[in-house]
Amino acid sequence: MDTVTQTSPKTGLTAAEQQYPLPPSRWDASVYTDPDRYRSELTAVFHHSWFPVHPSRDLPRARDFLTWDRIGQSIVITRLDDGSVRAWHNVCQHRGARLVNGSGNCGRARFTCPWHGFVYDLEGMVGAVPLRESFDEEALRGLRAPAVQVTEWAGWIWLALSDDVPPLLDHLGAIGTELAGYGLEGFTTRFRTSVRLKVNWKIAVDGFNETWHVPFTHPHTLAGLVMWRDAVLRISSPHSWMTLPIRGYTERAKATDDHRASHLCHYLVFPNTIFSCFPTHLQMWSAWPVSVDETELCAYEVVGPPPAGKTAEQWDRHNRRDWQQFLDVLNEDAEVINDISTVIGSLGFRGSMFNTAESRLTAFHREIARRIGEEEPA
Ligand code: FES
Ligand SMILES: [Fe+2]
């Protein structure tokens, strides 16, 4: 029998389909360059998703606050005296001034607008109003900077800009179950960096969600480690993930059914965040749109407690080496990706074609097309 068409009794899929689940697809170059489409993506995709925006430990104490400025929005995130977090739009309800800058501890538990002095509490409610009697009292009743959905999970503060987004764990689905298995609440963010890329955010996301560029882009850093031919891709709409065997690690891992214990597991939390996980440590990064042709990549090294047999010092050295290697790999990716900016307007580039090994890219672009109400190209 032809081995290619042999199907698994368990899944009914051929071996090729199990590894690479979607057929090839093609996408017009305009998905990366059209400013109107970019604006549609911001509203239809970014305003309706959950994002991990800060490690929880960036807000360790009661009355700590920070401001988050991305995708054309500014959000204040605060920790209340009872330990819970709140988030609200950083804009004064009087005449639209920016209320809060930077981060810190707000000992008095209130923020005063720098323009005419409206006072806001840690939850964004308007309290004192100068010249109160000169306003329409009705307009001031219950006035607040609009709240934003916020929750803490797996060691991160997550935001969703719309109220119609389902609860975080419903949004994450199977990816949430996967990530929950790592016990990330007990991990710490050890290193972080950010890098500007001169391309559309989807080029950045595409670049990190397939592995067969490894022998070409990363011949000296990753090619000897990542067994990229054996990556198994999975679609878990709107997210996706893959398991990657690692030379010298996967063979050594004790026989286990749990891929998390034996493989590098690489998850895309739709639309823009990747968790690349080992059981003991991980890298997480998000591709934030800045404009149609600019992206800011924010990356973190997140580490668990020292594994059995390692001292704190050994573990620290290991984490430093790991982070340096990640930065080297990131630089190699950034070089290729930034060079795309010099040819993105080329008359010779009509669009991208994704093969089956790029099934995660097909799933990602299909999801975006669906959300902005576009037909998938034939
Ligand atoms: S704009 Fe804030 S008080 Fe006037
Ligand atoms: Fe890469």
Structure overview:
- 24% of the residues lie in helices and 28% in strands.
- It has 378 residues and is an alpha+beta fold.
- The protein has two domains: 15-46 and 174-371, Naphthalene 1,2-dioxygenase Alpha Subunit, Chain A, domain 1; 50-160, Rieske Iron-sulfur Protein (3-layer Sandwich), CATH 2.102.10.10.
- The strands form five sheets. The protein has a seven-stranded antiparallel sheet. The protein has a four-stranded antiparallel sheet with strand order 5-4-3-6, with no helix packed on it. A three-stranded antiparallel sheet has the order 2-10-9, with no helix packed on it.
- The two termini are 33 Å apart.
- The structure holds FE2/S2 (inorganic) cluster (FES) and fe (ii) ion.
- Fe (ii) ion is lined by residues 213, 217-218, 333.
